[in-house]
């Protein structure tokens, strides 16, 4: 079912993204501060005078890691982003962005106090917006192409950052977070302001409809199946022209370079005959059962946790919360159902269905928070780096 939500994601800020262009300089790195001014408010870092935000010191979790993380101090991503910056913008109210220049998703207006609703025209514009994001160099963010030890380049003063397109930045961020550098095979966190349009909120795909049909896999939405190759997209879809990047999960570890561009998107929904359990989408009751799991997470805070909402919505547990190593449900099942690019962890964001699948997962989490409250989320040094 093609549904829409108004506020589901958080704009990319420096604590969860790569780096604003203004900060990617030797001076910025050496100062450890990334607090740019909004373009409309020059000389006002983070829009402080205008009441938009303030430049604050980052408070990173300094508690000891659990036993599953034996490489303390050896990974640039650890206590992100303090290896690079220790002061960033903290935005007030509905203001957002790395410089507090934008509104949170779902809000608009000069003071970010007007709710946004989606029109029929915006539905039709969504595919075009994704295509534009795939082709347009990100105006604000660049990516690091070397580990921090080599970030200043061979001459010690040429910083190693590169441009990337808006959508590919999103793909690369996922790739960066799942690469196994000192962490073991990981899972990614998801977020980011891909479309760079403060009036546009991302829709979601309600994948909990059961059956073996991908109802958004049509040429006017996410691309139908090709009549020539059951694993390919129809040539009538703009997404058939997209190329997968970051195909090798080893590239950043061994080369430290931007991802390659290789094959087209592959997708064959319900086509994995070797795994019948992933040939059907989750059922509506699966979501209802998942929302009844009361505890956000349980030991060992990993993919083997039982009676854990986090592990249940992620899909490593049965919808009722009990861990079963054979089960794949909800989020994981939706990925595996796609049977192609979208079913491989490090490649999955290359298929734009990833966006809609994850916004629905976010919507489930949002509903869980409404029912159980944010106080139900405990903190513990044994938490593993997984995503919801």
TrEMBL record:
N-terminal signal peptide: 1-17
UniProt cross-references to Gene3D superfamilies, sorted A to Z: Di-copper center containing domain from catechol oxidase
Chief subcellular location: membrane
Keyword vocabulary terms for this entry: Copper, Disulfide bond, Glycoprotein, Melanin biosynthesis, Membrane, Metal-binding, Monooxygenase, Oxidoreductase, Signal, Transmembrane, Transmembrane helix, Zinc
Keyword Transferase recorded: no
Localization (cell): Melanosome membrane
Cofactors: Cu(2+); Zn(2+)
Family statement: Belongs to the tyrosinase family.
Highest taxon above the source species: Eukaryota
UniProt xrefs under PROSITE patterns: TYROSINASE_2
SUPFAM superfamilies, sorted: Di-copper centre-containing domain
PANTHER family linked to this entry: 5,6-DIHYDROXYINDOLE-2-CARBOXYLIC ACID OXIDASE, TYROSINASE FAMILY MEMBER
Protein name, per record: 5,6-dihydroxyindole-2-carboxylic acid oxidase
InterPro entries: Di-copper_centre_dom_sf, Tyrosinase/Hemocyanin, Tyrosinase_Cu-bd
Tyrosinase copper-binding domain location: 351-362
Keyword Glycoprotein recorded: yes
Protein's pathway: Pigment biosynthesis; melanin biosynthesis
Catalytic activity: 2 5,6-dihydroxyindole-2-carboxylate + O2 = 2 indole-5,6-quinone-2-carboxylate + 2 H2O
Membrane disposition: Single-pass type I membrane protein
């Amino acid at each position: 079912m093609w549904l829409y939500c108004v506020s589901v994601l958080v704009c990319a800020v420096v604590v969860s993204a790569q780096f604003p262009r203004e900060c990617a300089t030797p001076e910025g790195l050496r100062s450890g501060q990334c607090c740019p001014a909004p373009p409309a408010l020059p000389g006002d870092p983070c829009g402080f005078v205008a009441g938009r935000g303030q430049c604050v010191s980052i408070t990173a979790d300094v508690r000891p890691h659990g036993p599953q993380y034996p490489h303390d101090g050896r990974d640039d991503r650890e206590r992100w982003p303090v290896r690079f910056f220790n002061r960033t913008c903290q935005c007030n109210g509905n203001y957002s962005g790395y410089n507090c220049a934008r509104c949170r998703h779902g809000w608009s207006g000069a003071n970010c106090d007007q709710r946004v609703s989606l029109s029929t025209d915006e539905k039709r514009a969504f595919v075009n917006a994704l295509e534009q994001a795939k082709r347009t160099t990100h105006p604000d963010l660049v990516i690091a192409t070397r580990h921090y030890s080599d970030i200043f380049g061979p001459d010690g003063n040429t910083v190693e950052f590169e441009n990337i397109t808006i959508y590919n930045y999103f793909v690369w961020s996922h790739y960066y977070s799942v690469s196994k550098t000192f962490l073991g095979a990981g899972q990614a966190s998801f977020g980011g302001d891909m479309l760079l349009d403060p009036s546009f909120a991302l829709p979601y795909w309600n994948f909990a409809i059961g059956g073996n049909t991908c109802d958004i896999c049509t040429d006017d939405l996410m691309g139908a199946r090709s009549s020539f190759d059951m694993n390919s997209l129809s040539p009538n879809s703009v997404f058939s022209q997209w190329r997968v990047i970051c195909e090798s999960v080893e590239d950043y570890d061994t080369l430290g370079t931007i991802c390659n561009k290789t094959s087209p998107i592959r997708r064959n929904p319900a086509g994995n005959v070797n795994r019948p359990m992933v040939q059907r989408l989750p059922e509506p009751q699966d979501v209802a059962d998942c929302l009844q799991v009361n505890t956000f997470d349980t030991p060992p805070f990993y993919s083997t946790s039982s009676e854990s909402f986090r592990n249940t919505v992620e899909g490593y547990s049965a919808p009722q919360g009990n861990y079963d190593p054979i089960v794949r449900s909800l989020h994981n099942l939706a990925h595996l159902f796609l049977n192609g690019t979208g079913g491989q962890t490090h490649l999955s964001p290359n298929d734009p269905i990833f966006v809609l699948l994850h916004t629905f997962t976010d919507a489930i989490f949002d509903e869980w928070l409404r029912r159980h409250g944010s106080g139900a989320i405990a903190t513990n040094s044994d938490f593993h780096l997984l995503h919801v």
